[in-house]
Amino acid sequence: MDIAEQTINLFGESDEEAEEESSKKNNYTNGDGEEEEQQQDKEPQSSSSPSSSSSSSGHSSGSSSTSSSSNRSSSSSEDDNDVRPSSHGNRTYNYNDEGNSHYSENDDEAAEENDERGDLFGSDNDDYVKTPAASTHPIPVLPPLRNTNNQPRGGFGRGRWQNDRGRGLLPRPGSYQQRQNYGYGNNFYNGHRDERFVSELKFSKSEETLARKSIAFQEPCELACYSRVEGGDVYFDDRGVRLFKRLITEDIGSDLNEGFNTFIPKKELGSDGFGDLLAAIRNKNIPLQNMHFVTYRNNLNKIMATAYMRHEPWEMGVHKRNGVVYLDVHKLPERPQNELDKRRCYWGYAFEALATEDPTRADGEGIHHVDANVEYCAVIKTKLGAHRILMGAEMDCCDSTDEGRRFYVELKTSRELDYHTEERYEREKLLKFWIQSFLAGVPYIVIGYRDDAGVLVRTERLRTKDITHRVKMKNYWQGGVCLAFADEVLCWLYGTVKENEDYVLQFAPPFSRLELLQAHSCPDVIKQHVEQL
User: What is the DSSP string of 187-229?
Assistant: First the structure.
C-alpha cells in the first residue's frame, strides 16, 4: 500500500480519488518506502472516519490514521497540543495551535526528520547505550605550564638563570657593550647572597591573615631596675627615676632651646649597655631557665613596627646560650647631623627636663644642665605568644595614684600638627608611641607639641589603650597585627638559631624579608654573664 494512501484527507476527498492521485506520484517512492510498507504491515492499525481529529499525549496517541508518517508526526509532537497534519498534493503540512507550520518536500524526508526529532541521539543511540561508564583510556596529563610573567627567582633569557646554574656560556648577541651585574639590586629578587646567609623569613602573610590571629600578651611585671647617674656609675636601685610634673601646662610657651649650649649628648655604649642589663638580672638572681629571650625593649620595638613600616633598616645581634636567646642592640651608622638636627634632638631631652620635677631647679628657672646619659631602666618580665621575655626598658618618669600605686609615664615631643602632617603622625609616630608604651605596660603618654622654632605650644595626655581605638576607625594600623607579626618572627628565630652559635638579624633593602646571618663572635659581656650564672 502506498504511503500517500494512508494520509488523512482533511479536504473531504474519497479514498478512491486519493488512490488515483497517489498513483501519479510513483516517482517519489523508492526502496525505502517499500521497506516502510513492510514494517507498517507488522504494526497494528486502526481506522476511523476522515473527519476525526488527531491529538497526542505523553502515553497514547488518538490519531485515526494508520500511516507510519502520521504516527511518527504525532510522537515527535508530544509537547505540542492539538497538532493537525494535512496532505495536499505531494507536500505534507503540519499546523499547531501557535500558528507555526513546516513542511517537507516528500514523505520520506518528513519521516526521517520526525525520526530524528523523536530520538535525542539519532542513529547513534545503540552505540551510545553500550558505552562503559569508566573509560578504558588513561586520563591525559598535560605538561606543566611555564609562567614567564611572574618568576620569583628571575625570568628567562640572558642575564638571569634558573636552578642556580650560573650565567650562560654564550655572551649576549650584538656589538653593544655587555651588561655588568645585571639581575641584581633592589629591583631584582635574586640579588647576591651574603656569604654569611643562614635563613630568611619572607613577608608572605597579609595584614588580613595576621589580623585573624589572636596572640596572647602577658601583662608586664617589673622584677628589677638600675639607675645610671652623672659620671656613668650604675646602681641597682631606683635613685635615677624622675617624678612627673602634673602642672606641665603652666610651661606652655617655654623655649626648648634653653640649655642647648651646656647639653651633654648620649654616649654610645654598644654592648656595654647590654652588660648593665645582664648585671641587674644577676644582682636580683632572676632565673633564666624558663626564659626564651633576653633583650632591650628597643629590639622588640623594631620587630613589631616592621609589620607596617617597611622602609627603615635595622639589625640586632642574636646569641643563644643555655637555651636563652640574647638580643643585643646594634646601632646602624647615620648621616652626619647638622645644627638643626642636633637642636631637634635636644628639644626632646629639654621637654623631659621641663615635664619632670627637678629639686635643683628653682621655680621659674629655665632649663639647664641636661645630661642625656642619666637614665633609669626597669627590668620587666612578659610573655608574647608562647615565648617568655625578659627585657630592659628605659623609663622617662613616674607618677602615682591616690592609693599610692606607682605607674610610669612616657614623654614625647612632636611638631605641631596640621592638615598635611596629621595622617603621617597617626600612621607612624602614634604606632611607635603605642608599641613602646604597650610592651612595658606604660599606661599614659604625655606629648609636647612645639613649633619650628622649638617653642612649646601645647601638651596632650594620651591613654595607651585609647590610641588603637583612635587609629582603628581610620584603618591605619592594628595592634593585633603587630603582635601577630612579632610572634611569627620570634617563632622562626628561636627555632632557627642553634646553641652556642652567633648571628645577626637584619632588615635591609629591598625590605621584603628578614635575614639571619652568621656572626663570627659573641660580645664579651654575654660570655661573662653566662660564666657567672
Answer: T-SS-PPPTTEEEEEE--S-HHHHHT----BPPPEEEEEEEE-
Taking the CA atoms of the chain, what radius of gyration do you get in angstroms?
46
Give, as one character, the DSSP assignment of residue 371. B
Give helix 524-532 / helix 271-283 axis angle, nearest 10°: 10
Distance of alpha carbon 304 from alpha carbon 302, whole angstroms: 6
Nearest to 260 by CA among 334, 336, 333, 353: 353
User: Can you give the pLDDT at residue 122?
Assistant: 56
- Show Cβ contacts of residue 383 under 8 Å, excluding neighbours closer than 6 positions: 216, 217, 218, 389
Number of helices (H) and strands (E) in the chain: give both, helices first: 14, 17
Which pLDDT score is estimated for 368? 79
The single-letter code of the amino acid at 394 is: E
Contact indicator for 301, 488 with CB cutoff of 8 Å: no
DSSP H helical ranges for 9-158: 15-24, 31-42, 68-76, 107-118, 125-129
pLDDT beneath 70, residues of the chain: 1-133, 145-193, 362-364
> H/E element holding 67?
none
d(CA 433, CA 304): 12
CB 511 within 8 A of CB 191: no
Please name the residues in contact with 225: beta carbons below 8 A apart, sequence gap of 6 or more: 236, 237, 238, 241, 280, 376, 377, 378, 379
Q: Per this entry, what is the length of the chain? A: 533
372, 266 in Cβ contact below 8 A?
A: yes
Return d(Cα 29, Cα 2) in angstroms, integer: 8
Query: 316 forms bridges with which residues in the sheet?
Result: 329, 505
Long-range CB pairs of 23-28, under 8 A, 24+ apart, other chains included: 25/90, 26/2, 28/90, 28/106, 28/107, 28/108
pLDDT of amino acid 80: 43
Q: Going along 77-205, which residue ranges are E strands?
A: 84-88, 91-95, 101-104, 197-202
Looking at the DSSP bridge assignments, the partners of residue 384 are 217, 387
Closest to 224 (Cα-Cα) out of 211, 236, 212, 210: 236
The span from the CA of 102 to the CA of 96, in Å, is 10
